[in-house]
Design brief:
This protein is α+β, with helices and mostly antiparallel strands. Among the domains are: 64 residues, no CATH class; 77 residues, Pdz3 Domain, CATH 2.30.42.10; 128 residues, no CATH class. Helix content is 33%, strand content 25%. The strands form 8 sheets. Strands 18, 19, 20, 21 and 22 form a 5-stranded antiparallel sheet that branches. Strands 6-5-7-8 form a 4-stranded antiparallel sheet, with no helix packed on it. The protein starts with a helix and ends with a helix. The relative contact order is 0.09. The model has no long low-confidence stretch (mean pLDDT 85).
Length: 507
């Protein structure tokens, strides 16, 4: 909660989408990276202080937040991302995965091939220049559809964005990672491929539904992720459902137990996979019929259902205690249809009726980040900006070293020559200006490291000269040689450590 929330009339805690941060630890930020850096390098006991401007609030809000490091982040953060514009992203022609992901996201959102690029100017009847919080927008819709207006080259197109049915959910842990399993009264949707990265090179495509991972048939999220983790560093046979066709693939699992995609669950078809994780509650209805994994629920009480949205809608109409018949297509042979019977109690029907709609999966990834160009008005101002930014880089490097010794920054966050080269190749693909900025960052970091009071570095030589100036005589050659050898051992050990981390990260 904001420190001055009561005076400002703010009742809900936390930062909000659209908030503008005007001050970080007493310094106005120039870019979003300033906030990330402040969180990563914050004193664990003190955290960071923010002043925030919020639309509709008459005064600036003050926050004191302690960043945390979660299993899904590499450094302490306060859990915020930069604002997104409403301009639709275009696929990167140099990356095969980019084209696959953009096409998939547009299909999932209900945007047809004739939907133009450009920017979304209205969402659910409201004008918008940055992407708003999507959860409340889709939760307020009656049927999961939201009208959006896109403008491109002076023309406007109206599109109907398509959300996905909200389901119940439980969490479980797989190899120290938290996995969320969505379900409907215990019916767990199949796991499928969301966005692809390295997985695109292995032949996986966004939207593929997993029929088999290794020996696990029709895995849910927990079983699927565990099966992939268990094959770390090995080849793994997969069978996926791509549309109506089954495709067999063999992929190489990384040593970190991943194959390079973001998992999600299939809700467009009412495919039933394995039961809920052990100990999870809320699965009585699914347990009462014990369907074979891979079964598809096609109807409820004779009424056809279309995916989990249709299944949810029909179950919501059930009468407590009355029989509910499910028409099921079994995954055997050419398909065998059976009818199974269950029932719902008052609490279960109420739970189903309480469910709303979620935004399209990964929908924010369809939009470009909101950008503000920082440009000097004359050469003198440009030099001042350059000196200021260089000064900030140097101070951040010193602060990083301090936090490293304090333990707030982990050693595995350091990069060596291999890591720098890898990042440099990625930066070079963006633009020449980005590459020049990257070189400036590396130069500033090297300047700091070179002037540290470490033997064999210029900083160590300065220490010896300072001692000579104070005592009136030079440090003995034996001491200088011993210090130089110790410095070589220290820097050599650090080089080996960061190089090992860089190669491990690449593999």
């Amino acid at each position: 909660m904001a420190i001055n929330a009561t005076a400002a009339g703010v009742k809900k805690p936390g930062l909000r989408v659209g908030d503008t941060i005007v001050d970080i630890n007493g310094t106005p930020p120039r870019e979003f990276g300033d906030l990330w850096m402040a969180g990563a390098l914050a004193d664990p006991d003190e955290g960071i202080s923010l002043r925030v401007r919020r639309a509709g609030v008459s005064q600036e809000l003050s926050y004191s937040i302690k960043p945390v490091r979660t299993p899904n982040t590499d450094f302490p953060s306060i859990g915020v991302e930069p604002a997104l514009s409403t301009t639709l992203a275009e696929p990167d022609p140099r990356q095969h995965a980019s084209a696959l992901n953009i096409a998939f996201l547009r299909r999932e959102a209900g945007l047809g091939p004739d939907t133009p690029g450009g920017a979304m100017t209205r969402l659910a009847g409201a004008d918008t220049t940055v992407l708003p919080a999507l959860g409340p927008v889709f939760a307020a819709s009656a049927d999961g559809t939201v009208e959006a207006v896109f403008a491109d080259d002076g023309s406007e197109t109206t599109a109907e964005l398509r959300g996905v049915p909200e389901l119940e959910h439980v969490t479980t842990t797989v190899d120290n990672a938290t996995v969320t399993v969505h379900h409907l009264l215990g019916f767990v949707p199949a796991m499928r491929v969301g966005l692809v990265f390295a997985a695109a090179d292995a032949g996986l495509e966004p939207g593929d539904v997993f029929v088999r991972i290794g020996r696990v048939e029709w895995p849910g999220p927990a079983e699927g992720i565990r099966a992939i983790h268990d094959a770390a560093g090995e080849e793994l046979d997969l069978v996926v459902l791509r549309g109506t066709e089954r495709v067999s693939l063999t992929v190489r699992v990384g040593i970190d137990g991943t194959i390079g995609f973001l998992p999600m669950q299939e809700r467009r078809r009412a495919i039933v996979t394995r039961p809920l994780p052990a100990g999870a509650e809320g699965g009585r209805v699914a347990d009462s019929v014990a369907l074979v994994p891979g079964s598809v629920i096609e109807s409820v009480n004779g009424a056809a259902v279309n995916g989990y949205a249709g299944l949810r809608g029909q179950l919501a109409r059930a009468t407590p205690g009355d029989p509910v018949s499910l028409g099921v297509l079994l995954p055997v042979g050419d398909g065998v249809r059976i009818t199974v019977t269950t029932s719902l109690d008052t609490d279960e029907i109420a739970r189903v009726n309480a469910l709303g709609w979620d935004p399209p999966p990964f929908f924010p990834a369809l939009f470009e980040p909101a950008r503000i160009t920082i440009k000097a008005s004359n050469p003198v101002e440009a030099v001042v900006m350059g000196v200021s930014d260089t000064n900030q880089m140097i101070l951040r490097t010193y602060l990083t070293l301090i936090r490293l010794f304090e333990g707030a920054v982990e050693v595995d966050q350091l990069r060596g020559p291999v890591g720098i080269a890898h990042i440099g190749t990625r930066v070079a693909q963006q633009s020449f200006a980005e590459l020049l900025f990257f070189f400036a960052v590396i130069s500033a970091n090297l300047a700091v490291l070179n002037f540290l009071p470490v033997p064999i570095a210029d900083g160590g030589l300065m220490v010896f000269l300072l001692i000579e100036w104070i005592t009136g005589k030079p440090v003995s050659p034996r001491v200088q040689n011993g210090a130089a050898l110790a410095g070589m051992v220290m820097l050599g050990s650090l080089f080996l450590l960061v190089t090992f981390n860089d190669i491990s990260r690449l593999l």
